[in-house]
Amino acid sequence: MKTPSSTRRTFIGGLLGSASFWLYSNHEVWADALAAGQAGPYTPRYFNEAEWRFLNAACERIFPTDGHGPGARSLGAPEFIDRQMDTPYGHGALWYMSGPFQNAPANLGYQLSLPPREIYRQGIAAADAYVRDHHDGRGFADLDAADQTTVLKALEQGDIALGSVPGHTFFEQLRQNTLEGVFSDPLHGGNKGLAGWTLLGFPGARADFMDWVNQDGAPYPFGPVSISGETA
Amino acid sequence: MSTMKTDAIIIGAGWAGSILAKELTEAGLSVTILERGDDRATATEGDYPSSIDELRGAIRHRLFQNLSQTTVTIRNTVDQTAVPYRRLAAFLPGEGVGGAGLHWSGVHFRVAPDDLALRTNIIARYGKSFIPEGMNLQDYDVTYEELEPFFDKAEKVFGTSGEPHTIRGKVAGKGNPFAPDRSDAFPLPPMKDVYSATLFKTAAANVGYHPYSLPAANASAQYTNPYGVQMGPCNFCGYCSGYDCYMYSKASPNVNILPALRQDPKFTLVTKAHVLKVNLDSDGRKATGVTYLDLRTRQQVELRADLVIISAFQFHNVHLMLLSGIGQPYDPVRNTGTVGRNFVYQTITTSRAWLPARHYTNQFVGAGGAGVAIDDFNSLNFDHGPLGFVGGAPVWVNQAGVKPIAAAIGGPGGKAPTWGEGYKDALVDTYRHSLAIDAHGSNMAYRDVYLDLDPTYSDAYGQPLLRMTFTWKDNDIRMNQYVVSRIEPIMKAMGATRYALGTLKAGEPFDTRRYQTTHLGGGAVMGADPKTSAVNRYLQSWDVPNVFVIGASAFPQGMGYNPTGMVAALAYWSAYHIRTTYLKNPGPMVQA
Amino acid sequence: MKIRAFPFAAALGAAALLLLASAPHARADDTGDLVARGRYVAEASDCSACHTVKGGRPFAGGLAFRLPFGSIYAPNISPDPIHGIGAYSEAAFSRAVREGVRRDGASLYPAMPFPSYARMSDSDIHALFTYFMKGVQPVASATPAISWPLSMRWPMSLWRAAFAPSVQSAQKDVARPFPDSAIARGAYLVEGPGHCGACHSPRGIALQEKTLSASSSTLFLSGGAPVDGFVPTSLRQDQRTGLASWSEDDIVTFLATGRNRKGEAFGGMTDAISHGTQHLSDADLHAIARYLRFLGPNDPKATAWQYDPAAATSLRQGNATARGAKVYVDHCAACHRTDGAGYAPAFPPLAGNPVVMSDKPDSLVHVVQSGAALPGMARAPSAFVMPAYGQRLSAEQIADVVTFIRGAWGNNASPVDATSVASLQHSAPPPVLSEKPVPLN
To answer: How far apart, in whole angstroms, are the C-alpha atoms of residue C94 and residue B179?
Structure first.
């Protein structure tokens, strides 16, 4: 038998060294996914307790539980966002973050100095403070659903000034990340039970439609499968 | 600083660089590609099913340029202050081996021959006064007949699937009747039409248009190309644009050229090598090599060579020329210089049709290069006289595999909510029962739309960022609106229960927050006149003749077609003339 | 363990020598030609896989073969007079290669396939010797010592006396009549330097090959014991489990590129092709193919495989209720198709594939759980990789999908249960890409 000339570990190490900022090998994907699956109730790593309550409530309003199925909260979108905060994305390492930071027309894009984790930290604090000021000291998570929706709409339309983070910027960050959490592979912490994909009829990581290129508008018959092999 | 020597340096390992490297090693030269990104292999990064991950791929941009190191600044008009393009959105340059050729979708057109001499043709048909004030309409100084052998070669290397119209003057299939004559068939039969595309094909024909299946560099069957490399067939998984194709069926430098090139001992690939500048001799007329930063060691390296090929992404080509002092920078005020001149893009808007609920469009089924198009409103295929604009757009259903995050963030369309109550209902309906139709059009060049160096912002290596001054002009907006108006009858003919037409709006500035295309062009354009072009018809620098600048940077106008087919043909064309003419007698191949 | 070690070593050991015999019209009296021919043979061969460690000096030895009682090491065979074979005469060299006897009289371990090499011609041995002496740089580094009890060589002497043929008897068998010269040439290459039987023929109780040539038994090349967990298939004209459905060109293409329209190499065969057969001349590859097709079946009762569309029709209609069908659709069909036809040569067919229908499911189970990588070859530069599913699928799921594959599309091999899969996990090869094949694409 041949002696392996390099171990898996050195291979993966080499791969990480040579590949872009965020490259998984199969094995690490597995380690991460399986560890997450075994973890039980999720404990946030980045968000503090108040932020976590805000985040859970806001995600659920953006993608609510209804007759179509579970909402963002039970789909794990808050967990997804929390885990994203410690990725290069969360730290702003994918963005050009050198100054000077100047005001510019909206169509020229994001011009703040804040990475996603700071948008959340400052945005949640300011939004919760605003809500307390206007709702007898209650925080966002303690409002009823209709009031929460009203607040989010006001943020979306830029009607609430949040200090360092424009309300619209904060809302759009929240909306996009929530939907990412609902619809990404469960590997990343959201889309629990593949319920996001099931809602849309998206088949997931099967990625083979040779028999289904054109069946005259018939619905595709198979439920989704995830990268780790989970099915629904 | 260490110094080494090679015959030819190629900057960038995308399509253009890989083609030039293959051609020049075949010619017997020692060739070094300097690529600033990582090496990339489908087997390790693009493998099944780990790469079938929308979040890492299209959303977090696994294969794209990391803007934290270098980006561009953008302003719409010369009186604005440009600000950095901080997050990837409107356009998505690649990084790493394969470049944009690894993450592209695979639509593989040739060129509309009329577009190669658009200025001459417009003047001949409508007179010089038809050209709007400030529009720098120019010819390429190369004809379709000259390029045809190289389109043919590229298709055979790419394993392109398609249906011909005519071959050597004889009708040979049901391909695009506006397509130019071919010397040979496509190497593979056309891709199958997905259901949405079939509906479009029937409806468009009923309206009187001329639909055809798109030529795709997605292999419709297993294929072995002239370099001996093998491709699997496309199974319509939909992971083309933004991904590395685990089926090895989307053509890429990684799959179609590099496996053969890597076996050649004359070939060297250096990754994590960020070229800082092309070095010139004391009188600035000859390149002596390049200086690059080894991103692993942070050491500068000088590499000497007789021939330097600049074949990075379009605007990186222009950036490097400006940083190196190759050619005269363009000045829009005095209208002098050529480097940065005629910076162009593409117009694209999407319209959507919703079908009765019994019709499932299964939009996740797709292939990036496949679909059905009409060319009735592209190039000079229709009468512009009464319309009063220059340019046009193919219109198509190019169902490239709609993934859930993109669909969800983009929203259900129309007036439907983008979150909260009512959102899921509308999203499900749109995802399951709608189809998209794009108008993917030209963009003309203008005197005050250009590239130069930014006075304020710099990259991670201390060099000034490139500055884009760009916005939509009335001519292009009117072109888009006209072509989109021609989509409406198709919508009706296909039995849409409702539809939404997407157009550019009058006066609308370029919006950097919304993805449009990555089909940027110009800035180092080819042409017959050194006063209005940076490179000659062989893509050789007028000013430094041992430098060739290959890529969409050579396009004088933004065309309606996707650019990769033209880039590949120009790369083979340039390589052919380097091999047959330049290497025998190095020097200018066209006298200025 | 021994069962795995020896054939594998043999497979890796000397595919190179194939080329010696194939170089056209070399002039034996011209040393330069001989060295060039020898170098070409050595580059084309897998001598280096055992006698050169990755990143080490050529032929300096050192590769370990792990056995239950310790390790043996491929020796330094560079022409260094102290640590290598520099002090060998041609006669001593010939004796080592063809008879397994070292210059000092000790016996070689049969990891060195001298029972097959005994068939090699004098002129091939002469070219090889000339190359090693004049075309290889001497390396003055010692091979790691083999510790007791493996340092005792006398058991190997007994083994040799019992099972290794004499050069004389081997050469006599080589000279037996064949229908034509190409088949004779193929027989020489396969039975001799190619030593295909080291893996593809059954072995006896003492690990000896039960037969060393097609002249004595239809057991020759009728399939061997697992090598690194993979089961070498029959190379005879056996229906379903052998090469009955492969044309001459299929065999040639496979040996030249590691892939053809019927299948793709995996396991040790990848090395045998990569280091060995891909460098053979077309004439020699055709000779091998003609010889293999000349070998009748070992099991003449097996019926020919015929495609059955039932499984594919069900899947296309969205019915995946058969055992293992849903796992297949979820994980395998993307590359191997719902009709099992695959997309050869990129992705091999499973329908009608001899590896799939083998009595032993080991190879199929191992490829599913560990994946496989086919590196680029000179004549087929593309590399293809099958991912490892061992951490993605449970033993039950693997058993289900393997059962589906072995029974669908006209395949008729027996079902596999989860217990068998679980027990095979112990002999699973390392997951694919834990060592990076080069080049990739």
So the answer is: 68
- Residues sharing a CB contact under 8 Å with residue B132, sequence separation 6 or more, in sequence order: B390, B473, B474, B475
Phi/psi of residue B439, each to 5°? -110, 115
Domain-located, residue A153: yes
Residue A30 has what pLDDT? 39
Q: In this structure, what token pair is assigned to residue B497? A: 């229960």
Residue A212 lies in a domain: no
- How far, in Å, CA of A55 to CA of A80, rounded? 11
Supply the DSSP symbol for C243: S
Q: Which residues pair with C73 in a beta bridge?
A: C64
Q: Please check whether residue A226 lies inside any domain of the structure.
A: no
Q: How many CB atoms lie within 10 A of CB A125?
A: 18
Q: Is the dihedral of CA A40, A44, A49, A52 positive or negative?
A: negative
Select the residue of C1, C333, C435 nearest A4 (Cβ to Cβ).
C435
Of B138, B541, B516, B88, nearest to B317 by C-alpha is B541
pLDDT of residue A210: 96
Asked if residue A190 is part of any domain, the answer here is: yes
So where are chain B's domains?
2-582
Total count of domains within chain A: 1
Report the distance separating Cα A214 and Cα A51, nearest Å: 47
CB within 8 Å: A1 and C387: no
d(CA A197, CA A226): 10
C260 neighbourhood in chain B, CB within 8 Å:
none
Instruction: Return d(Cα C315, Cα C293) in angstroms, integer.
Output: 36
Minimum CA–CA partner of B264 in chain C: C378
pLDDT at residue number C230: 93
Q: CA angle, corner C294, sides to C291 and C296, nearest 5?
A: 135
Which pTM does this prediction carry?
0.93
Determine phi and psi for B354, rounding to 5 degrees: -105, 135
Task: Compute chain B's Rg from CA coordinates.
Answer: 23
Instruction: Round to whole Å and give the CA distance between B479 and B384.
Output: 10
pLDDT in tens, B460-502: 999 999 999 999 999 999 999 999 999 999 999 999 999 999 9
Whether residue B41 and residue C380 make contact (CB cut-off 8 A), yes or no, is no
Q: Percent helix, strand, coil in chain B (nearest 5)?
A: 25, 20, 55
**How is chain C split into domains, by residue range?**
2-294, 310-427
CB B537 within 8 A of CB B574: no
Q: Of the CATH numbers 3.50.50.60, 3.30.70.260, 3.40.630.30, 3.30.230.20, which one belongs to the domain with range B2-582?
A: 3.50.50.60
pLDDT of residue B41: 86
Binding-site positions of C for heme c: 47, 50-51, 196, 199-200, 332, 335-336
Per annotation, catalytic residue among B61, B319, B359, B519: B519
pLDDT digits (tens, 9 = 90+) for B254-310: 999 999 999 999 999 999 999 999 999 999 999 999 999 999 999 999 999 999 999
Determine the Cα–Cα distance for residues B94 and A126; give it in Å rounded to an integer: 37
> Checking phi first, is residue B202 left (phi over 0); if not, alpha (psi -120 to 50) or beta?
alpha
Q: How far is CA B214 from CA A214, B202, B375, C185, in A?
A: 16, 15, 11, 52
Q: In terms of residue numbers, what domain contains A145? A: 39-97+108-205
User: What integer pLDDT is reported at residue A160 of this predicted model?
Assistant: 86
pLDDT digits (tens, 9 = 90+) for B319-372: 999 999 999 999 999 999 999 999 999 999 999 999 999 999 999 999 999 999
Which residue in chain C has the smallest CA separation from B50? C387
Which one of 3.90.180.10, 1.10.10.60, 1.10.8.10, 1.10.760.10 gives the CATH number of domain C310-427?
1.10.760.10
Q: Which of B411, C438, B517, B486 is nearest to A62 (CA)?
A: B411
